[in-house]
Amino acid sequence: MDRLLRGGALALLSLALLSTGCMGGVKLQVLASAPVTVPPSVQKVAVVDRSTPRNAGQGFLDALEGALTGEDIMADRDGAQAAVQAVERALIDSPRFEVVGAPGLSRRDLESSPDDRPASWPLIDRICKQAGCDGVVSLEMFDSDTGGIQFPSTQASSGSSSQNVRGSREARVTVTIRFYDARQHQVVDEMVRRRIDETFTAEGETPEQVRNNLANVRSQLTKLGQEVGAAYGRRVAPSYVWVSRSYYTRGHPLLQDAKRHVRASDWAGAVRIWSQLAGETGDPKLKGKAHFNLALASERTGDLDHAVELAQQAAVELANGRARSYQTALERRRADARRLDAQMETAQPAPAAPTTPQPVQPTQPAGRGPL
């Protein structure tokens, strides 16, 4: 694997934050492992929506339900589409998978149904044959439930325009998503009937203004669809996250000098100063601060083994909770790095029959994203 991706992945960006007390602060963007490890043979993935009813009769029942409950009959469809798009975006943003376009199959071809039955393997094989993929992420069910607008009894009864009126409406979606490994004919992961709830609120001088100010049902369910889709994408694909870190800036004039280098994104200059302080004999607390800051510099470059060693030295020399907490955070990141390395492995191709030698094309680094 590319050296840059080791150790929970390279910290891609660092932004200096406002100092607090004797500490400066930065944010690092790192690649974190996913909760679910997908077999390395699955590299190309198509995302499909099987939640759509497959016959006109079921569509009529859905429309009737919407009319009786006051829900927008297209709200579920908008929410489902938002969920699929959010899954695709999460997979695209991760360096783990290549997302390919799903074939334009009809609802009947996709074996869509109002429940969340798994897809048949002939269907998965057909999708992957047409799309050229190894796996399929399928939205199997998207069901919603929204209530009416609720007002506090005292506000609803007064009808006064002298004070703001607050109203709320609850929305809920229930989703099933499965990840199919087309090569092994295995369901790699399934999130069955995951429910997400949210209460939307608005204010106005009158209850009628509140009704007008509240987002409509379709936009609310679209928002929930985006949230649940993005969450599932992070569940199966390593994703970039921000972590906050602090470093010592006081206790010696050179620490202030190093802070200016960090703010100017001159980490090499800061490391030279911290290394000088770490090598001096004398105050162990000062050496501990230098080792603490050098651990941050090593974490930033993805060298987590060295970062843990430096943090351990700092924890001994400083003997405070901050140093021990940072050591623990680095040890957790190192453990996550090992999991990430396994998830980012590329499957070895099966041996092929001898052919005429072809020129070897240069490979691209496994990592993607802002550098």
Could you give a short account of the major beta sheet? 5 strands, mixed
Rg over alpha carbons: 27 Å
Number of strands: 8
Helix content range: 40-55%
> pLDDT below 50 for ≥5 consecutive residues: which ranges?
1-20, 53-71, 350-371
Strand content: 15-25%
SS class: alpha/beta
Number of helices: 11
How far do the termini sit from each other? Answer: 17 Å
Q: What is the ordering of alpha helices and beta strands? A: EEEHHEHEHEEHHEHHHHH
Identify the overall geometry.
Answer: flat
Largest sheet strand order: 4-3-5-6-7
Mean pLDDT metric = 82
Structure description:
With 371 residues, the protein is α/β, with parallel strands linked by helices. It is built from eleven helices and eight strands. The chain has helices at residues 56-69, 75-93, 121-131, 153-158, 207-213, 217-236, 253-263, 267-279, 284-300, 304-318, 321-343, and strands spanning 14-20, 23-32, 44-49, 98-99, 135-146, 165-181, 186-204, 239-248. The strands form two sheets. A five-stranded mixed beta sheet has the order 4-3-5-6-7. A hairpin with a 2-residue loop joins strand 1 (14-20) and strand 2 (23-32). Helix 2 (75-93) runs parallel beside helix 6 and helix 8 (267-279) packs antiparallel against helix 9. The radius of gyration is 27 Å and the shape is flat.
